[in-house]
Amino acid sequence: QVQLVESGGGLVQPGGSLRLSCAASGTIFSIAAMGWYRQAPGEQRELVARITSEDSTTYSDSVKGRFTISRDNAKNTVYLQMDSLKPEDTAAYYCRATVLSLKGWLELQGQGTLVTVSS
User: I need a surface site. Which of 28, 56, 60, 115 has the fewest CB within 10 A?
Assistant: First the structure.
């Protein structure tokens, strides 16, 4: 079974940092784009950052300059380094990836990890 598992969320003070990780497991032949999305209470899910297989990156305007997305293809893992965190970054963060598996190309999403920015 191919799945994504996120880790690294938690409680952090404003101005602090967190690093999220998302690992794809199972029989995987290739991973195309990987990305992070977030959803705050009462809000719609939004794209935070995305990285292609060629390491081209996209960021939402709200996190540009503060967050950095990267990937380790050898580990089938994508990371989100979050610096200068603000209370408005509080949300559940979800990883998504387009994965080539035994069943062909799959669009996967992890179970989410909660990030709370508060003093």
Answer: 56
- Give dist(CA 77, CA 65) in Å, integer: 22
Q: Based on DSSP, count helices (H) and strands (E) in the chain, helices before strands.
A: 0, 11
Are 22 and 33 contacting, i.e. CB atoms less than 8 angstroms apart? no
Q: Are 84 and 72 within 8 A, CB to CB?
A: no
Average the pLDDT over 78-103 and give the result.
97
Question: How many Å apart are CA 22 and CA 29, to the nearest integer?
Answer: 17
Q: What is the pLDDT of residues 96-119, one digit of tens each?
A: 999 999 999 999 999 999 999 999
Question: Average pLDDT for residues 58-82, to the nearest whole number?
Answer: 97
**What is the rounded distance in angstroms from the CA atom of residue 4 to the CA atom of residue 80?**
14
Burial letters 92-115, b for 16+ CB under 10 A, else e: bbbbbbbbebeeeeeebbbebbeb
